Amino acid sequence: MPIRDRRRGPAEVPAILIIDDDPVIGRVVCNLLADYGFRLFVAQDGDQGLRLAERHVPDLILLDLSMPGADGLEVCRRLKADPVTAPISVVFFSVSNDLEEKVMGFQLGALDFITKPVEPRELIARVMVQLRKHIQVENLRSRLAAYQHRFGLHTIEAGPDDVHPVRRIDHIRRARQILEARLKDPPSLAELADAVHLSPKRLSRDFQVVYGMTAFAWLREYRLLRAAELLRTSDAPMSVIADRLGYGSAASFSTQFRQHFGLSPRDYRAAQGLG
Length: 275
Description:
Elements: E1 15-19, H1 23-34, E2 39-43, H2 46-56, E3 60-64, H3 72-81, E4 89-94, H4 99-108, E5 112-115, H5 120-151, H6 165-181, H7 189-195, H8 200-211, H9 215-233, H10 238-244, H11 250-261, H12 265-271
Parallel strand pairs: 1-2, 1-3, 3-4, 4-5
Helix pairs in contact: 2-3, 5-6, 6-8, 7-8, 9-12, 10-11
């Protein structure tokens, strides 16, 4: 089933642009995604891809890192420099696992890398994750922009770290990325706020506005959702999942999981047919 955002209306399914100079890769990826009802566009070089991106403003771009002419890094840089295309989520295709290339890609604004040759299940999983994140962020941008339009920017304890709603979403997204990356040793609220250049008070308030909970309540929810995902998609022992997600012990993990889902991790896995 395609991902549909209820606020968009039934016809407005997510759009994906594939930019790859290898037509075989383009066809393979299109065939893999076709069953999900996405609107698909294909470009075979960077310049064509940039034109299609500006014309259609897709939700996600799957971008080959190595292309003649404007390569993936250059295309990504130009996408992010244009206000029209900057919000588009970008995921790179690459035959390489070179760390420097990945670091440069992330610095330019890419969100993920998929290694060639493409593994179908991995491609679908990563595309779904990024589309859900993109739709969520765009909805939050709209909500905060509407709030600003109705109530003004400085109605709630305006201070020196007040920012435009779109930039506020970026701050929250960066804070989320830090928490996601540091599940085992999360920063304090003060450290997290300093990393995204907000005051702790402002960061807490913005998390409440966007998610209806504090940053660390959100972290607890995220850990549990990741735990459920790992239980569904892997055969990792409970102790390994607990350690990976930053729980003090497997017993603590089991208790919190049962409180949230009403099942123990073992019973939850069995209910998925994986026990």
